[in-house]
Amino acid sequence: MPLAAEASRGVRAADVEDLVGGAMETLARVQPGLGPGLQRFAEAWDAERVSPGTLLPERGHIGSGAAERASGLGAEVVAFLAVAGLRPALEALFTPVRRHLAGDAWSLGVCPFCGGPPGFTDVIEDGRRRLACHLCGGAWLFAKLRCPFCGVDGAQHLVRLTPEEAKEEGYLVSACRECRAYLKEVDRRARWNAGPALVEDWGSPHFDLVAHRQGYWRPVASIVQLSAPA
User: Fold this and answer.
1) CB atoms < 10 A from the CB of 194, how many?
2) I need a labelling partner for 41 at 20 to 30 A (CA). Which of 33, 114, 154, 192 fits?
3) Model's pTM, two decimal places?
């Protein structure tokens, strides 16, 4: 069972509200149409109807739904606010326990620490697949031919996408034909100098465009996707 219950007790609103506020300001600048919803979110935060606890993952997605109901914002916007606002606090909270997760002891498609969905995939030096959580910075090994979102297993259910106009060795999109979810992936055997998962993810919006044009989705949107006109 993920440790999200510990996070709900360990992260206070005062610890994260400056970061949440900064993320809201960024979204308002790049997508002015979100302004009314962000204002309702801020009012709900001040009234404690929305809190760090309501932004934590439930059932494999980010947030309890309270923020969406209070603000009218989409789930992808709320997920971005959660990642941008909670990441430092959750990373500090879970760092002491990361060493207790050994090898392939965790086989689920959600983060073993916060319960969030994966946001990126690394192929590490020995060829194994490692999923990364953008919400808390956690990482865990996962079966190479299994979809972490719907659990379907087998190469026939998966497809690999690359931008025809800008192929880059070691980078691709891994998508599921069944649930239509996708993750971007970097093979660190070919890209030994690649950056952290969150940096690699948000620094490669052209891969998101390839996946979106073919009808695939992801649970945690980047700021580039959120800035696109509705």
Assistant:
1) 16
2) 114
3) 0.90
